[in-house]
Write a structure and sequence with these properties.
CATH superfamily of the largest domain: HUPs
Mean pLDDT: 88
Number of helices: 9
Family: Belongs to the universal stress protein A family.
Organism: Hyphomonas adhaerens MHS-3
Strand content: 15-25%
InterPro entries: Universal_stress_UspA, UspA
Radius of gyration: 20 Å
Protein name: Universal stress protein family protein
Distance between the termini: 22 Å
Number of domains: 2
């Protein structure tokens, strides 16, 4: 197993992803992999039959290949600089594939797959990959925070929903690695759905006890996202674990309100999400 940092060729974004992945990997004592996924240049071109068009296509392929080589070189340099001198095994790889599929393949078996904080913006090169892995492949992801990873506790956003439960189960290795959980719940949320025993914080506490994870409850009030971010800042939390709500379709991101506010926050710890 390993922690994977998804890289895009932007120094700031790739450094943040790599350092977050490295911080998680140190806790888990597993290798770190930097992955830069770019499609085959020839697959992005339309096949043309005339001799003139064939020549243009060949030139375009060379241009795309040159641009990709620059992206790969920047991603590799940033990854190797950030991991230089690290005792854990660290390796960089360029995968010839679309980032959506590469991200989903990585998330299938990795301990964690880390995307940069900038994927909150639709124009980011890895934005579609992040959305696809989380919303379509329904695999867990980590979004790097706006600041370096801390050694603080993990805040679990708990409303007893299936999404919240999936997030905690999927990210159990991270939860155990950081050692302490703050269970955050807005009690007014409990009345929105039909009551069930599993929705109470006591149910999560029992489950965490079975995995030898320390925990405590801390209530939040008002808007859930604002309450979670305030609690995370006040407790110097390393990660917020939360269920991701909503759905996606081509060209439009339709995350639920709380998820979107967490993603859009300019100042936030790392987010460990699952749908």
């Amino acid at each position: 197993m390993s922690v994977v940092a998804m890289l895009e060729g932007s120094e700031a974004a790739d450094r943040a992803s790599t350092l977050t992945a490295l911080g998680i990997a140190r806790r888990l004592q597993v290798p770190v992999s930097g992955v830069c996924a770019l499609p085959d240049p020839t697959s992005t071109l339309i096949v043309m039959s005339t001799p003139e068009a064939t020549g243009l296509a060949a030139n375009a392929t060379r241009d795309i290949t040159a641009m990709q080589e620059e992206v790969i070189a920047r991603a590799k340099k940033t990854f190797e600089t950030a991991t230089g001198g690290e005792s854990l095994p660290c390796d960089f790889s360029h995968i010839v594939d679309v980032a959506e599929r590469a991200g989903a393949n990585a998330a299938t078996l990795a301990d964690a797959v880390v995307f940069p904080h900038s994927v909150q913006k639709a124009a980011d090169p890895l934005s579609l990959s992040f959305e696809y892995v989380l919303m379509e492949a329904r695999l867990p992801v980590v979004m790097a925070g706006s600041e370096p990873l801390t050694d603080g506790p993990v805040v679990v956003a708990w409303d007893g929903s299936n999404g919240a439960a999936r997030a905690v189960r999927f990210h159990l290795p991270l939860v155990k690695a950081f050692g302490e959980v703050i269970i955050a719940q807005n009690e007014s949320d409990l009345g929105k759905d039909q009551p069930r025993d599993a929705s109470s914080p006591a149910a999560l506490e029992t489950w965490l006890d079975s995995h030898n994870v320390k925990h405590k409850r801390m209530p939040i009030e008002g808007q859930v996202a604002s309450g979670l971010l305030s609690l995370a800042k006040g407790s110097n939390a390393s990660i917020i674990v939360a269920g991701a709500y909503g759905h996606s379709r081509i060209g439009e991101r339709l995350f639920g309100g709380t998820t979107q506010r967490l993603l859009d926050a300019d100042e936030a710890p790392a987010l460990a999400l699952a749908r």
